[in-house]
Write a structure and sequence with these properties.
heterodimer, A: seven-stranded mixed beta sheet, 1 helix, B: mainly beta, five-stranded antiparallel beta sheet
């Protein structure tokens, strides 16, 4: 079974530019999550999709961040325009059910975003 | 808001010694507590978990304990090996919401 795939693995952009991150979850996993880790800090929740619907987007920092999951398969996270504080590692995770029921999440390898 | 505190942030042990990482959570409704290991260049991977109706769980060299009254849970690694070197994250989960700690970087010296 293929795991969760994220692309790109690294991205360096200038302040004010736009970046789009992509996540392909495990096939059949209705639940898709975006998280972000800023250096040395906790892995912080951004949002949760159930199929193509946003179930919870309470962690999205501001309206410069836009997440989509058209068709309920892969998801994109766009940052426009990027600011210095957006730097960090963006993780995508998927699960078939509640973490408690599914036995946790499967994470991708992350996208390391650096805004200069 | 809800949070998970994790200590220590860095831990260095000699090969063969034990390592203990401790976490405290704030949401008393949390009922699932997974631990993830992140190796260099990879995403976090689940290594063990415990549900709120259990006080302790063991899997070979790793064990987790949970004290619901105190809202504390811990990861214990015995007979550490160099390949245990990684960043470990604790988490507390309720429904579809999972909150993570800040991570512990474990170094196991050969």
């Amino acid at each position: 079974e293929a795991g969760v795939t994220q692309f790109p693995s690294h991205s360096v952009i200038e302040k004010g530019q736009t970046v789009t991150l992509r996540c392909d979850p495990i096939s059949g996993h209705d639940n898709l999550y975006w998280y972000r880790r800023v250096m040395g800090k906790e892995i912080k929740f951004l949002l949760h999709f159930v199929k193509e619907s946003k179930q919870d987007e309470s962690g999205m920092p501001n309206n410069r961040f836009l997440a989509e999951r058209t068709g309920g398969t892969y998801s994109t996270l766009k940052v426009q325009p990027a600011e210095l504080e957006d730097s960090g590692v963006y993780f995508c995770a998927s699960s078939q059910d509640l973490a408690r029921t599914a036995g946790g999440y499967t994470f991708g390898s992350g996208t390391r975003l650096t805004v200069v | 808001g809800e949070n998970v505190e994790q200590h220590p942030s860095t831990l260095s042990v000699q090969e063969g010694d034990s390592a203990v990482i401790k976490c405290t959570y704030s949401d008393s409704a949390s009922n699932y507590f997974p631990w993830y290991k992140q190796e260099l260049g990879k995403g976090p991977q689940l290594i063990i978990d415990i549900r709120s109706n259990v006080g302790e769980k063991k899997d070979q060299r790793i064990a987790v304990t949970l004290n619901k009254t105190a809202k504390h849970f811990s990861l214990h690694i015995t007979e550490t090996q160099p390949e245990d070197s990684a960043v470990y994250f604790c988490a507390a989960s309720r429904g579809f919401k999972t909150i993570f700690g800040a991570g512990t970087r474990l170094f196991v010296k050969a």
